[in-house]
Every structure is written in C-alpha cells, then in structure tokens.
Amino acid sequence: MPSQRHAITRTPPRRSRHLSSIVRSQEKNSSEGEESRDLYPTATIEKSEVFSNGITFSAFSEVAKEVQTLEKQVSRVTDPGLTKGPSFARALYTEEVESAFNDQINVELSISYVYAAMAAYFARDNVGLRGFAGYFASESQEERTHANMLLKHQVKRGGRVRLGAISSPESEFFHSEKGDVLFAAELALSLEKLNFQKLRALRRVAEGVQDDETTHYLDDYLLEKQAMDVEETAIFVSKLKRIGLGHGVWHMDKELMEKYPNAIDGILSGL
User: Residue 188: how many CB atoms within 10 A of its CB?
Assistant: First the structure.
C-alpha cells in the first residue's frame, strides 16, 4: 500500500498579548515651534499583570510619566555638568520642605557662629578661661555638624541648597551683675531652646505634606538630640548659678579644660 505524504503547514507564532509595544513619543516645543524626539523610548504594556493577591501592576505604563519627565529634563540641559536642570533624584520632595531645610541650615550655622565668638572671648589672655573656651568651641562644632546633616539630606532628596547670610555676633560677653560665664551660658540655653523650636517647626512642615522619610530623619537624628542639648545646657546654667562669681568659676573651668584639652594651647582646635 503506497505511503501517503502528509503536508505540514507551518503557521507563524501568535503574538502574545503580553508583549510590550515600544513607542517613541514626540513633544512639541512651544517656544521654538519644533518637534523633537524623546531621548529614550517609552514602553507601554498592552495588558496588565494581575497577581494572585488581586493587585494589578503595569510596570511600564506606571513609570511612563516619570520617564517622560526625565526625558524633558535631560533634553533641556545644555551644559556638560547637567547642573542647570532639575534634580534627577527628586521624588515627592516639596518646595516647602526644601525652603524650610535651607532656613534651618542657616539657623544652625548662625548659632555655631555665636558659639565661635564665645569660644574666642574666653580664650583671650585677659579672660583666661580656656576650659570654657573649649566648651563653647565644642558647641560650635556640634552646630556645624547639624547643619552638615541637614545639607546632606537636602542633597539626597534632590533639593537645592541655598545658604543665607549670617549676621555678625557679639564679641563681648561680660555682664556687670552675672559675670561673663553665666551670661554666656544663659545665652547658650536660649539658643538651644530656639533651635529646638525651629526644628519642631521644620518637622511640622514635613509632616504637613506627608513626607514620612523627612519626619523620621528629623526625629531620629536631630530632634531627640536637640532635646538632650537643651537639658544639658540647663544643667550647665544651674551649676553656674550655684557657684557664683568667685572661686567656683575657676574650679569649673579646670574641669572643662580636662574635658576639652585641645583648647589649652589656645588654638581652639574645635573651631
């Protein structure tokens, strides 16, 4: 019996409904009246992926808006360093929080400036309280550290750091009734309380726009530490009130010199 040949028909594979179609969008430049192609293709998903828990996720379509924004940023940058365009990392970071951070950076640096003036005053040869000089030099350094922490967070979130002017602090801290150490300590306590108030105001701005990451950062690294600084400075003032203007000031200066030995040589290494 003769064998029968069976014809084999090959059909092209059926296109999957899950395949993405890559499209290039064109945006019209209203100022120049020209059409330019985007630098990167924008991908769209024809059919969303539905997970077992019922969540629908369309990866490309959900990031399409962000990709288009990035395309516009890059296409408008003309200098090699990409410095004139907006930050690529900026996400859900409002102008209110950005401005409030710049204000707080200025507060921290201004307080640091006052502490530096106090340190220089007590380091004078005709004042001769190098322990108190070391204490206030350390406080100045701490405030600059806080300003740097705020600056780093601003950069991390894609904000633009704008440093403001710092007014010149007083250079004389002698008070006819309180003396210089108590007068300077009470001024320091007022500054620490003011700083705590400003940090709380900054946190309220972040909380008002539901910036959880910023509020957590302020709570964990700045607000709690500032509350401790207020308490420590208050205790410092209380001790000075107890010892008065006599021998107790010399004794406390000696203790501070042991704690801040780098100020002994008069270089004020903490500044």
Answer: 22
